[in-house]
Design goal:
Elements (H helix, E strand, L loop, with lengths): L1 H43 L11 E3 L5 E4 L5 E2 L9 H11 L11 H14 L9 H10 L6 H17 L2 H11 L6 E2 L1 H9 L8 H8 L5 H4 L5 H17 L5 H9 L17 H13 L5 H6 L3 E4 L3 H14 L7 E7 L6 E5 L24 H10 L7 E4 L4 E2 L6 E2 L11 E4 H7 L2 H11 L1 H10 L21 H12 L10 E5 L5 E4 L10 H11 L16 H4 L7 E6 L3 E7 L4 E7 L9 H4 L1 H13 L14 E6 L15 E6 L13 H12 L9 H5 L5
Parallel strand pairs: 1-5, 3-4
Antiparallel strand pairs: 1-2, 5-12, 6-7, 6-16, 8-11, 9-10, 12-13, 14-15, 15-16, 17-18
Helix pairs in contact: 1-5, 2-8, 2-10, 4-5, 4-6, 8-10, 10-11, 14-23, 15-17, 15-18, 15-20, 17-18
């Protein structure tokens, strides 16, 4: 019997040793597994914390003008921009030991298991804020062991890689508060119509109670249940010494006002401009569609809301007639190229096609300032004269001819100066000058002015028969306005990601491309379209709106059978306007032909209301003298009309006008009585033998 007992003890000891050894091996394996998990988590590094968020578009004053539409409202707020009361309320109800644990609260886990066993059901949760954040970021809502294991691993990675403040910030920006509001900022705006930073203690405690069950604890769903949970949270905040009992009582009794509306920023503000901004994000910043729509970007644009409103109102008032004509308007700051207003059509809802940016239309005579810039560079001056009369141009092959004509077939039937030719928009002067310079000269000059649309080497290019965009013309005129410096239309000044890190920032260009003296002389000539002293065989082309203008402007109108243009600038603002039909229908009605000028004049006056009146400043190498407009010679006291005109130094006229001297007039009367002498060929016919 004793032998059998000893045998049993020996067997028991053997099993016990085996159990201990197996336990030690299992423990060692568990330790190795845990070490392996930690090493693997370390190798993987920090998990990305970005979540889908609404991208916001801001005007130049940083007011919001639009946002991407994903059906959800998500706005990232820095932890410093969230009310401390909401932070404390969230910790008090969700994870009181948040700052003590390393992702898992083992006491809560044990307590939850006991409670579930007693109830034989899932009655209590034990997830920490870190675990909930991991679930919100990376996982679906399935209640499986696989999902739980993944959640634990993500939680471990988050805790190893980020500070408690970063985790708390991320959690508060991703938690769901009901009504499609994700994050504290979106929820604060929806429920209380304010930023998360401005929440009161009462509002914070109410908001912190919603994530437990948005359909049950939202004050808009059940105010009674929401108040009960608010009280529970306030009590917990007292227990955690975040607030006093008096503060708790005051907060619980505070009467709250609920908004219950999202602050939608739909594309009602400058929709064509917003489309242009999105196009820039894709084409120039190389951002994909998902990043633009869901990246939580903050896109700071150049839009001036006041100027945009003026542009839209002006177009509506001028084109209120029953017309199917369309419009394109671009208004830029010539100093930096910032596009401050843009209209791409009369009704965005009917047509989102952006005629200011996408349509290529013939610019007509608005090309002439570029032509005369090239001419002055090659020795012409504002006083250079050319014969203006019906002309047929014949070319080398002996077959090709070109016979341009002036508006209403009116001509000077004599010499006309460049300054007056520009003011009256004389086509004969322009074509003769263009052919004298060589057809390739204007093509090259257009490129120097930043025009990228293809320009054809043809005689009619001087009259704007090669199409371009409204943005291109506005940009070209900006280079005249700023003294010849390179500009490109700028729509975006800065782009930030959801954390506020700068992804892109515009850098201004100060490259001198044009000759500043020539640019100023052309600018001064362009003021002539509003100056009645340049009236000749016709009135200056800006005469119909000149009476409403209250400051100096340089401008040029342009028209073809299907297009009507007006473009010009002050020292502070450049604006180009196009009107016409999408189907290239001819513009026949007089009132429709005037739309572009009326829009430009009304807009420029209203847009400048708060700006000081500034003159165009002469450059150092230019000089101004009084000139008799029809001859281009220095004016005398006998000249009834004279105009102060600028020239590059050394090219100003030196001969005085003799038209109005008594002896000249007597001589002219005598000539009228004598037979006309045989006509001599003028200089331009000797140089341009193919004219007749």
């Amino acid at each position: 019997m004793e032998i059998m007992t000893n045998q049993r003890f020996r067997n028991a000891g053997k099993y016990l040793r085996a159990l201990v050894i197996c336990s030690l091996i299992g423990l060692a394996l568990m330790v190795c597994l845990l070490i392996g998990i930690f090493i693997y988590a370390k190798i993987l590094g920090p998990p990305p914390l970005a979540v889908p968020q609404s991208t916001l578009y801001m005007a130049s004053d940083e007011s919001i003008i639009g946002e991407s539409h994903t059906g959800e409202k998500r706005y990232w707020a820095d932890i410093t921009d969230i009310s401390p009361d909401l932070i404390h309320a969230t910790i008090a109800i969700e994870d009181q030991s948040f700052y003590e644990h390393h992702g898992f609260d083992y006491k809560r886990i044990a307590g939850a298991l006991l409670a579930d066993l007693k109830a034989m059901a899932k009655v209590q949760g034990a997830s920490t804020i870190s675990q909930q954040y991991a679930k919100n970021l990376f996982l679906d809502q399935d209640k499986t062991w696989t999902r739980k294991i993944k959640e634990a691993f993500y939680t471990l990675r988050i805790e190893m890689s980020y500070t408690k403040e970063q985790i708390l910030e991320g959690y508060l920006n991703t938690i769901y508060y009901g009504n499609r509001a994700y994050g504290a900022q979106a929820a604060s705006q929806f429920y209380f119509g304010k930023d998360a930073a401005d929440l009161t203690l009462a509002e914070s405690a109410m908001l912190a109670g919603i994530p437990k069950g948005p359909s049950a604890y939202s004050p808009l769903a059940s105010f009674e249940k929401a108040k009960q949970r608010q009280k529970l949270i306030l009590t917990s905040m007292v227990g955690n010494q975040y607030i006093t009992k008096k503060e708790m009582a005051n907060a619980f009794n505070e009467e709250l006002t609920f908004v219950g509306e999202h602050q939608y920023y739909v594309n009602t503000v400058a929709p064509y401009f917003q489309d242009a901004v999105k196009a820039v994000l894709k084409s120039q910043l190389n951002l994909d569609e998902r990043m633009i729509e869901l990246g939580g970007l903050r896109v700071y644009t150049t839009l001036d809301r006041q100027k945009q409103e003026i542009a839209e109102k002006t177009i509506e008032e001028v084109m209120k007639e029953d017309t199917s004509m369309q419009v394109g308007l671009v208004s830029m700051n010539p100093k930096n190229g910032h596009v401050e207003a843009m209209v791409g059509g009369t009704d965005y809802e009917e047509s989102s096609f952006n005629r200011a940016l996408q349509a290529i239309r013939q610019p007509g005579s608005t090309m002439k300032p570029l032509l005369y810039y090239a001419a002055i560079k090659q020795g012409f001056t504002p006083a250079s004269t050319v014969m203006s009369k019906p002309t047929t141009f014949r070319f080398d092959d002996g077959q090709s001819t070109y016979a341009p004509h002036n508006y209403n077939n009116k001509y000077a039937d004599g010499d006309i100066t460049m300054a007056q030719a520009l003011a009256l928009s004389d086509n004969i002067y322009a074509v003769k000058t263009h052919l004298f310079l060589g057809e390739e000269t204007l093509v090259k000059t257009a490129k120097d002015f930043g025009i990228q649309s293809k320009m054809a080497k043809v005689p009619s290019l001087a009259l704007g028969t090669s199409g371009l965009r409204v943005t291109e013309l506005a940009n070209a005129y900006s280079m005249l306005a700023n003294g010849g410096k390179r500009t490109d239309p700028v729509f975006i000044t800065r782009v930030e990601d959801y954390k506020g890190d700068v992804l892109y920032e515009a850098k201004g260009s100060h490259e001198q491309v044009l000759d500043e003296d020539t640019a100023f002389v052309v600018t001064e000539m362009m003021t002539g379209i509003f100056d009645q002293t340049l009236n000749g065989y016709a009135s200056v082309t800006g005469s119909t709106i000149s009476n409403q203008l209250t400051r100096p402007y340089a401008a040029k109108s342009g028209s073809t059978e299907t297009d009507s243009w007006m473009a010009g600038f002050s020292p502070q603002l450049v604006t180009a306007v196009w009107t016409g039909y999408d189907d290239n229908q001819t513009i026949d009605l007089v009132k429709e032909k005037a739309f572009a000028k009326e829009i430009w004049g009304n807009y420029m006056e209203d847009a400048h209301q708060d700006l000081p009146i500034r003159q165009f400043t002469p450059t150092k190498n230019t000089i101004g003298v009084y000139v008799e407009p029809s001859t281009g010679k220095l004016a005398t006291e006998n000249c009834p009309v004279k105009r102060f005109t600028y020239f590059i130094k050394g090219t100003e006229p030196t001969e005085y006008c003799s038209l109005h001297l008594p002896e000249y007039q007597a001589e002219e009367k005598q000539k009228e009585k004598e037979p006309a002498p045989k006509e001599k060929k003028p200089w331009y016919k000797k140089i341009l033998p193919w004219t007749s």
